[in-house]
Amino acid sequence: MTSSLRLTFDREFEEARQNLYQLADMVGAAIDQSLKALVDRDLKLAEEIIGNDEEINKLRFKIEEACLALIATQQPAASDLREIFAIIHLVVEMERMGDYAAGIAKTTIMMKEEPLLKTFKKIPRMGEISREMLADSIQAFKQHNADWAREIAARDNEIDDLYQSIFHKLIKIMAKEPEMITRCTYLMWCAHNLERIADRVTNIAEQIIFMTTGDMRELQG
Predict the structure, then answer these.
(1) What is the pLDDT of residues 131-152, one digit of tens each?
(2) Which DSSP helix (H) or strand (E) runs through 73?
(3) CA distances (Å), 88 to each of 60, 62, 67, 68, 173, in order?
(4) How many structural domains does the chain have?
(5) What is the rounded (10 degree) CA torsion for 156, 162, 165, 170?
(6) Is 219 part of a structural domain of the chain?
(7) CATH number at residue 193
């Protein structure tokens, strides 16, 4: 690769990275806002989250197209190629996280003014952990830190434990009080979406490890 081509490659590559970081910020905000809308029963905010999901989708496709163009026109070296492939995988995972956040917003709208249950208290905690995992994964990506990525993936176990606790408590409530089935189902949907967000972060961690070490392993047991 000539020096002029390298300069062009470096510039376009850095632009793809910056767009990735912007997408992560957008998705993180969607997760935060979806939980706020749920806790506050803010239907207007929930509608905004659903509307903003299209912007997340557009940015995902923009980044994918830029990365594919880099591969097609610049013939990147192996280490650069792994990072480009990682970015492509990361934006797909993040776009799906945005879908899950929008799903929580849609559930909030369906719940309307239904009062929340005591079991609900663990759901915001799931959101906090998932959000922290996403933010940390971006930092691990920036630093090419495989060890950090492994630590982030391990936190998925905490999310799984919270989800199982919520699930079993809601099942017990529905068995004892059939009139609560609808409300419990809504909360199950929200908890499930947060559990899936954490799973997506684990997928991101796998890509960071591959990008950094060339070793691709599934981290979800």
Answers:
(1) 999 999 999 999 999 999 999 9
(2) helix 43-74
(3) 9, 10, 7, 9, 42
(4) 1
(5) -110
(6) no
(7) 1.20.58.220
- In this prediction, residue 2 has a pLDDT band, given cuts at 50, 70 and 90, of low
State the residue range of the domain holding 49: 3-213
Residues 75/9, Cβ–Cβ less than 8 Å: no
According to DSSP, residue 117 is labeled P
The string of pLDDT tens digits covering residues 201-220 is 999 999 999 999 987 776 66
| Separation of alpha carbons 56 and 61, rounded Å | 9
Q: What's the one-letter identity of residue 130?
A: S
Contact 155, 198 (CB under 8 A): yes
pLDDT at 221 over 50: no
Counting DSSP H helices and E strands in the chain, the numbers are 7, 0
Contact, 186 vs 111, CB < 8 A? yes
Q: Does any domain span residue 46?
A: yes
pLDDT digits (tens, 9 = 90+) for 160-181: 999 999 999 999 999 999 988 9
Distance CA 220, CA 48 (A): 33
CA distance 193 to 179: 24
Residue 1, pLDDT > 60, answer no
Summarize the confidence of residues 120-138 as an average pLDDT: 93
Domain annotation covers residue 221? no
Is residue 59 in some structural domain? Answer: yes
